[in-house]
Amino acid sequence: MSEDRTLLFIYGTLKTGASNHAVLADQEFIAAVNTIPGSRLYVVADYPGVVKDPTDKHGVQGELWSVDNDALARLDAFEGLPEKLYRRDRVTLASPHESTVVETYYYLRTTRGRRPIISGNWPTDGRLVP
Ligand code: PCA
């Protein structure tokens, strides 16, 4: 048992209204946020993935949530951390959250041949649920 909470930046299917939001929905929404440049968003399947990319100029749009340890463990399993689909690591948000310690899920498989979303906002057609 622990009162610890983690600030999590989410940008894909966990977003409000998106297909997997239920996995996160009982946690605490903080704000709609943007990362600083240096992270690029790709369509990797029917879900997106973020990878670090120094050439990125836009950053990624998403949501900042505060999650408890039980939810974090649930989310880590759901996002395939054991299978090395994603890893969870620090990300820097844009102002006014630039000093906040935040983590996100980085995609670990190849993005070769995958479509980058230059705007940083998934999905590009606005349809959160197919
Ligand atoms: N789920 C996580 C990572 C990508 C995805 O679809 C998220 O929403 O941030």
Task: Please summarize what this structure is.
This protein is mainly beta.
The general outline is globular
Secondary-structure element pattern, one letter each: EEEEEHEEE
CATH-level-4 superfamily name: Gamma-glutamyl cyclotransferase-like
Please tally the helical runs, counting DSSP H or I stretches of 4 or more residues: 1
Named once each, the bound ligands are:
pyroglutamic acid
Largest sheet: 5 strands, mixed
Task: Describe it.
By secondary structure, the chain is mainly beta. It has one domain: Hypothetical upf0131 protein ytfp (Roll). It is built from one helix and eight strands. The radius of gyration is 14 Å and the shape is globular. The termini are far apart. Bound molecules: pyroglutamic acid (PCA). Pyroglutamic acid binds at residues 10-15, 47-48, 79, 105.
